[in-house]
Amino acid sequence: MAEDRDDDDAELFRAAIGPVRRIRETAPPPTAPRPRPRARMTERDEAHARDEFRHALSSSAEPLEAGDALSYRREELSPRVLQRLKRGEIAVQEELDLHGSDAREAEQLLRAFLRDAAQHGVGCVRIIHGKGLHGHASIASGGMPVLKNLVDRLLRHRADVLAFHSAPSTQGGTGAVLVLLAPRRPR
Question: Where is this region: Disordered (predicted)?
Answer without folding.
Answer: 17-50
